[in-house]
Amino acid sequence: MSDILNKHSRRNFLQSTATLGLATTVPWSVSSAQSRRVASVGLQLYSLRNEMSRDFAGTLARVAELGFKEMEFAGYMRNSPGQVRSMLDANGLTSPAAHIQLQAIRDNLAGEIEAAQTLGQKYIVVPSLPGNERTLADYHRHAETLNRAGETCKAAGLKMGYHNHDFEFAIVEGQRPYDILMEETDPELVAMELDLFWIVTAGVDPVEYINKYPGRFAMLHVKDRDAQGRMVDVGRGTIKFAELFSRVDTGGFEHYFIEHDNPGNGLVSVAYSIYTVRNLRF
């Protein structure tokens, strides 16, 4: 696919997705007579960090042509917020959210808020926690940090967010640390981004948490997992996305960001995944 991208136009790239077998390999059983669908499919750009590092503007243009509408950033690669906003506008894209490391929230929240406002974002999302800050006492402190940052964000018209991995669900002293974050963060100040691959990898049913904490999950990371536990393109694994998405009324889902942490070929991966999601009915 990289040769195709280098030698042909972007239009040819879109046409070439047919060679991936998308029309025949997407599990059409996920489509149904249900009326709802994901109208605005987003992308967590960590999936394309290698492509972005080589051609930031060109990669944004290509994913827009694939049909993505919303970009969730995981770094701007030396581009200013103003420059990134111009690229988004040029391609008809928006950016509802960005992943911002916890230390940046601690050290430079004002600067991150300013960048988010320039980009038109609604959420500043903490993507993970340092490995040495995962005791129960740490989780209580993290909840306080998220709330305090959330108050500052609210005053600026934004909202804090938190993205899970699997480690938050491992039982510590009889408790799930994720429950501390859920119960001690203020829903008015902190939204949750539910990563479907990682919660399933933790052995936890995401529907359990959607039902337990209704309205808390403004964002989803739409990621698939096969029977061997490997991360795969959306539609190549076992996660029942249509069933999950049908809970939009209780989950509170506003944004659906496709992601693959380590795709073999990033553009091929996200092309397959968006094709799957755009054909889901729930």
Short description:
It is built from 14 helices and ten strands.
List strands and helices in order, with pairings.
Blueprint (H helix, E strand, L loop, with lengths): L1 H6 L2 H7 L5 H4 L15 E4 L4 H6 L1 H11 L3 E4 L7 H10 L3 E6 L2 H18 L3 E4 L9 H20 L3 E5 L13 H8 L5 E6 H6 L4 H7 L4 E6 L1 E2 L5 E2 L8 H5 L2 H4 L3 E4 L7 H13 L4
Parallel strand pairs: 1-2, 1-10, 2-3, 3-4, 4-5, 5-6, 6-7, 7-10
Antiparallel strand pairs: 8-9
Helix pairs in contact: 6-7, 7-8, 8-9
| CATH architecture heading | Alpha-Beta Barrel
CATH superfamily: Divalent-metal-dependent TIM barrel enzymes
pLDDT averaged over residues: 91
Cα-to-Cα separation, first versus last residue: 32 Å
Record field, number of beta strands: 10
Low-confidence stretches: 1-10, 23-33
CATH class: Alpha Beta
Give the proportion of residues in helices: 40-55%
Main structural class: alpha/beta
Order of helices and strands: HHHEHHEHEHEHEHEHHEEEHHEH
In words, what does this structure look like?
This protein is α/β, with parallel strands linked by helices and 282 residues long. The protein has one domain (2-6, 38-278): Divalent-metal-dependent TIM barrel enzymes (TIM Barrel), CATH 3.20.20. Helix content is 44%, strand content 15%. The chain is built from 14 helices and 10 strands. It has an 8-stranded parallel β-barrel with strand order 1-2-3-4-5-6-7-10, surrounded by 4 helices. A two-stranded antiparallel ribbon has the order 8-9. Strand 2 (70-73), helix 6 and strand 3 (94-99) form a beta-alpha-beta unit. Helix 6 (81-90) crosses helix 7 (102-119) and helix 8 runs parallel beside helix 9 (177-184). The chain is globular. The chain starts with a helix and ends with a helix. 39% of the residues are buried. The model is unreliable at 1-10 and 23-33 (pLDDT under 50).
